[in-house]
Amino acid sequence: MAEITMMKIGPVLIVPMQVALHNHAAVQVQEDIIQNIEETGARGLLIEVSKLRIVDSFLGRLIGDTAGMAGVMGCQTVLVGLQPEVAITLMELGLHLEGVYTALNTEAGLELLEHLIGDKTDKIETEHSSGEERF
């Protein structure tokens, strides 16, 4: 089974997918990502797929589902490094990856997450400093 090394830098969990995953391995990676988000309190998830040349419908849906689960846990997801042929395949398969932001590369993805997470953090700090609480 392929093992994916995940790393947390600041509030962001980075998951570099360097090899194509079979269905069972992909599900295990999904479970590991969600567990890591829970354990580390990550507010951003960056999935790097520049080495993947093929993404089938299962893996595409799994990425979308993972982003949805991360979102429920308060974690924004950015997918980076999509190769043109992979992007075309995802669209041909009708996979729109709801809740997943995309960026050209890791640097742009981290900047996007900083903006997404920063906006959320700023709003929370503003609400608390004004004494306002929302439920």
Question: Which characteristics define this entry?
Answer:
single chain, 135 residues, alpha/beta, Transcription Regulator spoIIAA, five-stranded mixed beta sheet
Describe the structure.
By secondary structure, the protein is α/β, with parallel strands linked by helices. The protein has a single domain, classed as 2-Layer Sandwich (Transcription Regulator spoIIAA), CATH 3.30.750.24. It contains 4 helices and 5 strands. It has helices at residues 23-40, 57-72, 84-92, 106-129, and strands at 7-9, 12-16, 44-48, 76-80, 100-103. Strands 1-2-3-4-5 form a 5-stranded mixed β-sheet, sandwiched between helices. Strand 2, helix 1 and strand 3 (44-48) form a beta-alpha-beta unit. Helix 1 (23-40) packs parallel to helix 2 (57-72). The longest helix has 24 residues, at 106-129.
